[in-house]
Design a protein that fits this description.
Number of strands: 18
Shape: globular
Bound molecules: xanthosine-5'-monophosphate
Strand order of the largest sheet: 2-1-3-4-9-8-7-5-6
CATH topology of the largest domain: Rossmann fold
Oligomer: single chain
Structural class: alpha/beta
Number of domains: 3
Helix content: 25-40%
Strand content: 15-25%
């Protein structure tokens, strides 16, 4: 779907491969201004953005990056960006790149700076307006600007970096060697808002509470009387996309939820409770038998994933055909677009996160992605505004292949039933202990190992179950959670007591890396 308002004031963040491009964009959005991340390697994207008169680009931030500007394969951009009169702010690599493009000199710093550093402001400037003369910033660089280009002047220094920030004498071009976007830079948000509000003169009109009404109007105008279909997984993104489009076109939307038979206890019921009164057509496809047949005899994790994905697509294709829908709704969010290199481009059918892809056989008139410009926390805010139940809003990430990747070896209905019981105990105990909201994920895994035990007065020979609880910010890395022993003990006792087939319970103490979050 096209952006809500292509003419809205936008700050572009050129992502030179630093870790923080999303953070810059997020800080700008929190200030109340819309921001987009662009990959500067895709010069045509950048050119298209700059030349497209429908985009109201108020300023460009050049992010940090891992390279030195004089390395062979360092990412460069066209120098004429310096002459367009658009306000520019370079951060770290971006700071050095601006100086480099304007014929300054960059080289290895005498002393590298990593971490919290004090800078001293030497000269008044709009970019450092109202910042304390001595302030703590976050540095992370091996190179420095050794000599500024003509018409540029230094405005701040640190003990090891004489040119820690600069400004152009006439044009709105600035650079900072440090990272104002990270929270360790004490007055970083003020620095960014100096650029965005003070220099670029943006109005603060990106507000998430205005989003819902605007999105509903736009969907109505686009879709008119046509029919739409959405694959509802129960994850927050597809749930919010469903709810938004549902508000716009109600019965002209069909949400297809596939119960693969590999869901956790209560999952399908929660979806039904959340969406059955939503005014849309909710179609729950019970496909357990189909999935178990397809998975029969399959032990390899990759094979399982592939089969689950293919089966899901087949089912969705069948349903889409029956519905004769013109539009496909997807819960794509902004980081999905950036990761798949689609930011700034027209909608493309993305690989569905939960499954292996989406229907190729069905030709849709268009794709509607109402969340395509949003970050996850914005999606959560909208979910609350749309009054989706807490269970959906706070749902843990759950893999598309479901419990199939939490059962080692062949997947059978019997093993699924065992795992569902144990998993419910893990969830109940963690939630009852009041620690659930501190954890990223917590779940049980059924191993294919057997162990001897005693149940009642008898020898028992049963299966080993593992459970996992993790802290993470983004699932890229994760640490196993140091759960209270009392919680671990209760989970263990309950599982061995209440799940007949289990004789042993182990707690998974593997971080990611070296482990992954899921076992398969
Ligand atoms: P791993 O196991 O790769 O998982 O460390 C990272 C995160 O992704 C979730 N996950 C999936 N999510 N479809 C999804 O939508 C999948 O196939 C899938 N596999 C793993 C996992 O639960 C964790 O949050």
């Amino acid at each position: 779907m096209a952006s809500i308002n292509k003419k809205r004031e936008t700050i572009i963040v050129l992502d030179f491969g630093g870790q923080y491009a999303h953070l810059i964009s997020k800080v700008i959005r929190n200030i109340g201004v819309y921001s987009e991340i662009i990959d500067p390697k895709k010069q045509e994207n950048l050119k298209e953005f700059l030349e497209n008169s429908t985009n109201n680009i108020k300023g460009i931030i050049l992010s940090g990056g891992p390279k030195s500007v004089y390395e062979n394969n360092a990412i460069m951009i066209n120098k004429n960006i310096l002459e367009k009169g658009i306000p520019l702010l370079g951060l770290c690599y971006g700071h050095q790149l601006i100086a480099h493009m304007a014929n300054g000199k960059i080289g290895p710093a005498e002393k590298k700076e990593f971490g919290e550093t004090e800078i001293i402001i030497d000269k008044q400037s709009k970019i450092l307006n109202s910042i304390d003369k001595h302030t703590k910033v976050w540095m992370n660089h091996g190179d420095s600007i050794l000599k500024l280009p003509n018409n540029y002047e230094s405005i701040a220094h640190s003990a090891n970096t004489p040119i820690a920030a600069f400004k152009h004498k006439k044009l709105p071009i600035y650079g900072m060697q440090w990272h104002p976007e990270v929270s360790h830079t004490k007055q970083g948000t003020k620095m960014i808002s100096n650029f965005v509000l003070g220099i670029c003169k943006c109005k603060r009109n990106w507000k998430i509470n205005k989003f819902v009404q605007a999105a509903i109007m736009q969907i109505k105008n686009r879709v008119k009387e046509s029919r739409c279909i959405v694959a509802l997984s129960g994850g927050i993104d597809s749930s919010v996309a469903t709810a938004l489009v549902g508000k716009a076109i109600s019965k002209n939307l069909t949400a297809v939820y596939v119960d693969t038979g590999l869901m956790r206890t209560g999952e399908t019921e929660d979806i039904y409770a959340a969406f059955s009164d939503f005014g849309i057509n909710l179609k729950i496809v019970y496909a357990g038998t189909r999935f178990f047949t397809a998975l029969k005899g399959i032990k390899s994790p990759e094979q399982k994933r592939k089969i689950m994905g293919m089966e899901f697509i087949k089912i969705f294709e069948e349903e889409a055909k029956k519905e004769k829908a013109d539009y496909l709704v997807q819960g794509t969010i902004y980081p999905d677009r950036v990761e798949s290199g689609m930011a700034g481009n027209a909608a493309v059918i993305k690989r569905h996160h939960n499954v292996g892809g989406l229907p190729k056989k069905i030709k849709f008139k268009g794709i509607i992605e109402p969340l395509e410009d949003l970050y996850k926390d914005d999606v959560k805010k909208i979910a609350k505004e749309l009054k989706l139940p807490e269970k959906i809003i706070n749902r843990q990430p759950f893999p598309g292949p479901g419990l199939a990747v939490r059962i080692i070896g062949e997947v059978t209905p019997k093993k699924v039933a065992i795992l569902q019981k144990a998993d419910l105990i893990v969830r109940e105990e963690i939630e009852n202990a009041g620690i659930a909201n501190r954890l990223w994920q917590y779940f049980a895994v059924l191993s294919d190992t057997y162990a001897v035990g005693i149940k009642g007065d008898n020898r028992a020979y049963g299966q080993v179950i593992a459970f996992r609880a993790l802290n993470s910010r983004d699932a890229m890395t994760a640490k196993f959670a140091e759960l209270p022993w009392s919680v671990i003990r209760r989970i263990s006792i309950r599982i061995t007591n209440e799940v007949n087939e289990i004789t042993r319970v182990v707690y998974d103490t593997t971080d990611k890396p070296p482990g992954t979050i899921e076992w398969e």
